[in-house]
Amino acid sequence: MKLLDLFITSSIPVGKILVITGIGFYLALDRVNILNQDARKQLNNIVFYVFSPSLVASSLAETITYESLVKMWFMPLNVVLTFIIGSFLGWLVIKITKPPYHLRGIIVGCCAAGNLGNMPLIIIPAICNEKGSPFGDPETCEKYGLGYVALSMAIGSICIWTYVYNLMRVLARESPIIIGTSSTVPLIPTKVIQVEEQFGTWSKIKQRVCSATENINLGTIFAPSTIAALIALGVGLIPTLRKLLIGNTAPLRVIEDSVSLLGEGTIPLLTLIIGGNLLKGLRGSGMHKSVILGVVVVRYVLLPIIGVLIVQGAHQLGLITSEPLYQFVLLLQYVVPPAMNLGTITQLFGSGESECSVILFWSYALASVSLTLWPTFFMWLVA
Questions:
Q1: pTM of whole model > 0.90?
Q2: 121 near 329, Cβ under 8 Å?
Q3: Which of 9, 52, 118, 347 is most buried, by the most CB atoms less than 10 A from its CB?
Q4: Is 350 left (phi over 0), alpha (psi -120 to 50) or beta?
Q5: What pLDDT digit, counting tens, does each position of 67-85 carry?
Q6: Beta 178-179 vs 183-184: how paired, if at all?
């Protein structure tokens, strides 16, 4: 397949995303006022509690079996690596740009959490169905491609609502307490320091563990999407449950069909919401350009380069198969823009919504370039 054909193939799904995002943007304009702030907030709650869990559950339960999970064992590790490496790079952005304290969680979240849901779900079928796709038969390509994306989306959802959600919450609440102009309140009280000095290293470790445990909110860790992913894994991996719920001859297939029907509304709804949220980004919120540039460089330059090194290294070591489509999905996980769920998280927090919209606006504005150039290179690399 020629390079120009690869470029055209990778640009089609980006065009679809831009069209739907543009509709959401238009509906949020003041003169239209259909997708206003209150409407987006209510829709976000519906996505959080209903649509997103349904999409994760239906996609995962249909495609995951014990055999496929063994074959794709590296994919969960790859997703976790994108979050860990992104968090580290986000921390570097904070150190370099020195933003206000309330923005630190948003910056780390945007660098760590990629859009592993609706972006690949739109990109993979579009590429598979393009004439001259390097991944073979369109029907087979789409079937296996959506299976890879389903697992990627489920693991990504768990990471967002356990790791990123709580990381953003903790970073947003942490700030130095300053009294007057010269005196500060120490982060660790003097009594604690004296006790730690008296009882040694074990006391320090115990103190840190207890402090971290107190800050963990189990209610947020087990978010609806996380619970849905765990249930779906159980259905997919337990043959009895799978026969009852999955397939055209399953006795309880009406449950799976209903969940799948709800899940189908997630992608267009999330894309419309992000289009509405981008209006805030266009109007601006005093966000420093260095912060936006830092996030864009992390997501569209550093992470893809690191992803190529990791995936190609894993292939050379025999950790992953030589199947081009599987490698392509692994590489795609490093180049997607920040997750749309970050907008939902900031709205649930009730703070940082405007700043997050600015970062998302510029990230998705530049995604049309990144999601065309990098997938073109990825297809050439794996094919």
A1: no
A2: no
A3: 52
A4: left
A5: 777 888 899 999 999 999 9
A6: antiparallel
